[in-house]
Write a structure and sequence with these properties.
Number of helices: 4
Distance between the termini: 10 Å
Helix content: 25-40%
Shape: elongated
Order of helices and strands: HEEEEEEHEHH
Strand content: 15-25%
Oligomer: single chain
Largest sheet: 5 strands, antiparallel
Strand order of the largest sheet: 1-2-7-3-4
Length: 171
């Protein structure tokens, strides 16, 4: 294989990766979500969503209703949380605060999620700035691939190496 073929294959792989990345970002703009896809990482929402389900999000401007399932991020925590709204309060200026609970959990999120995982012990509600998006649909178990890649990092590197090898061997 000569240098020209190596450069061509490298550019083809890079164009494919950039195309996927740009499509994901365009979809994020269309749905008004910073992250239009998330993978369920725990069993707290069973039976509605199982570990490994891929959730499709959007972020419409209308208020969130009781029973809806938002995805939210608590400050100082990188992993988003997927739980159902069980109570809400609307202020006079139009702001909304939410109380959430996992369908498979015994108690609401005030004690464990809001207080223990957040440095501010006075946090009692999910506020609008915490909302990443709202669940609009899902695909069962297709996110298990992501979970395996996180749980077994060597698998991730082996897969990337195999893709690079295939890209360079086949024209």
């Amino acid at each position: 294989m000569n240098l020209r073929q190596i450069l061509t294959n490298t550019l083809n792989v890079l164009m494919m990766l950039f195309g996927v990345f740009m499509s994901y970002k365009a979809w994020g703009l269309y749905t008004n979500c910073e992250s239009p896809l998330v993978v369920v990482l725990s069993g707290s929402m069973e039976p509605a969503f199982a570990r490994g389900d891929i959730l499709f999000l959007n972020n419409p401007k209308k208020p969130i209703e009781i029973g809806e399932i938002p995805v939210f991020k608590i400050p100082n925590r990188d992993i988003p949380i997927v739980h159902r709204v069980i109570d809400r309060h609307d202020s006079e200026n139009g702001n909304q605060v939410l109380l959430t609970k996992g369908d498979n959990n015994d108690v609401d999120d005030r004690i464990f999620i809001y207080r223990e995982l957040h440095s501010n012990r006075n946090m009692m509600w999910v506020e609008p700035q915490h909302i990443v998006g709202r669940v609009q649909g899902f695909l069962q178990y297709l996110g298990m691939f992501t979970i395996f890649m996180t749980d077994y990092p060597m698998l991730k590197y082996a897969l990337l190496g195999a893709i690079a090898l295939i890209a360079f061997i086949y024209e």
